[in-house]
Design a protein that fits this description.
The protein has 160 residues and is an alpha+beta fold. The protein has 6 helices and 3 strands, in the order αββααβααα. It has a 3-stranded mixed beta sheet with strand order 1-2-3. β1 and β2 form a beta hairpin.
Length: 160
């Protein structure tokens, strides 16, 4: 169980790191980074910073390396903010929570579709495949015009 002191220190570290990533770090590798949480060891010597990075796997690894290279700068910012005997050594880890949540929601959507008896959409099909299989806008408009004409004839025939 974390003590109140650890929780306060973790929140202060998260604020300092998040602000510094947004405003002070000029490393081009550190882009689209969100600081999710910070956990501090009981002796306050180490802090794990969980980050989320938008982009592909290569971009994520580049951002983590850029953050590791900026750790000393960030630790000096933390030392200015926190009044502790030791400044925590920072380590950065990718937070997979968002990706896991997306995967779970896709699985749940498939289960719901199976229970409702609806055919499952093939994940490998592209939106252009779906558009190519459906009738074109011109064909749909022509079909609607024909049905409207038939209804008008039926209505005019009934009223005569």
């Amino acid at each position: 169980m974390s003590s109140r002191r650890q929780l306060k220190a973790a929140e202060a570290i998260r604020e300092v790191v998040a602000t510094s990533v947004l405003t002070d770090i000029r490393d081009p590798r550190v882009r689209d980074v969100t600081i999710i949480s910070v956990s501090v060891s009981p002796d306050m010597r180490e802090a794990k910073v969980s980050v989320s990075v938008m982009g592909d796997e290569a971009q994520k690894q580049l951002s983590i390396r850029g953050l590791q290279n900026s750790a000393g700068f960030l630790q000096s910012k933390i030392a200015n903010r926190l009044d502790t005997r030791y400044t925590p050594r920072l380590s950065f880890e990718l937070d997979k929570g968002q990706e896991n949540a997306l995967a779970v929601s896709e699985i749940l959507a498939r289960i719901r579709a199976e229970q409702d008896g609806e055919p499952l959409a093939d994940a490998s099909s592209t939106p252009t495949d779906t558009i190519a299989d459906s009738p074109s806008a011109e064909e749909a408009t022509a079909d609607e015009t024909q049905t409207d004409d038939q209804q008008n004839k039926d209505d005019s025939g009934q009223s005569s």
